[in-house]
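Shipment paperwork, digital attachment
Item: protein structure file
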Amino acid sequence: MERGGEKQKTVKGSDVVIEHVRKSFGEFKALDDVSIGIRKGEFFSLLGPSGCGKTTLLRIIAGFESPEGGAVLLDGRDVLGQPPDARHVNTVFQNYALFPHLTVFENVAFSMRLRKAPESEVKARVAEYLQLVELQAHASKKPAQLSGGQKQRVAIARALINEPSVLLLDEPLSALDAKLRQHMLIELDSIHDKIGITFIYVTHDQQEALSVSDRIAVMNAGEVLQVGTPQEIYEAPATDFVAKFIGETNLFEADVASVSGETVELRTDGFGPVKVTATEPPPVGSRVSWTIRPEKIRIGLEEPRSARNGINAVAGVVDEPIYSGFQSKFYVRAPSGLVLKVIKQHADWSDEGPEIAWKDAVWLSFSAEDAYIVEVKR
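Attachment content:
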């Protein structure tokens, strides 16, 4: 796992480069000039809502769909003219696609049986991959005797036994319940760290993508809106859609009043001047959107005393406090009617709940360094 740089892993597999890929189904444009570079050994996620084109792109990489234009390069070689079985790419499907009449052992061994591998090699390799997915004790069971998570692990072992350069995973955890899905995510990440090949993971679940990915491509309406690490995608979204789709956020429109270095003062509709950061500040007079994450905002009953440069303060009234055990969420209405979401973490064991109640007059404060300009409108 490369995230955070704290863990080293074996890096194998192939580089995957998608160049200007286009695909339509009748009048519906599924992919519109999509280009992405995926590095060897990465855990790379295609993230977006249903219908955004992520599964279509995965099927094009696998060879199950043909684009109307563009190229798909594996280690620099265009594979679009090759059938799926010649691409050294395997797919784990959403519905597992296991053979119900075969045992776990025979499901995993299926591709080796097809190529008539020696029995001794079949037994050794199947045992190796069943151990990898921790299913040795279930080798003689049929799929109907397994849990959803166990079926998914059989599907992963069956895909990996061919030693592909790239493993494609099409929403592989969507049929599992929330707790099992989280457990399988950890297992999937651990398997990736052990074998080190390129994983391309399709999901509509932002938390899944943020949890396991080295990098993420956020897609919508057939386009790639942003590619970056989970931290880059979350902390510095490139578009309004990315800001709203990844986690919770506050997103507002404003006019640029002044610029000083990377600090921009905005006149925000509804609650006056706000200072934010921008690495490439737009010119004065521009119309922009800007964002601040709820957990970056402090909430209190007293006006903030800090007057240091770059601290924003907004007065408001609590519309709705929501206690969730480990945190409280507040919807705070400014005098103009604009509502901001604020999240307060309960870090102290003695903090039994929010000290701030419904209809309390409160003050919100946040640093300009935590607020970002997302899009320039004009």
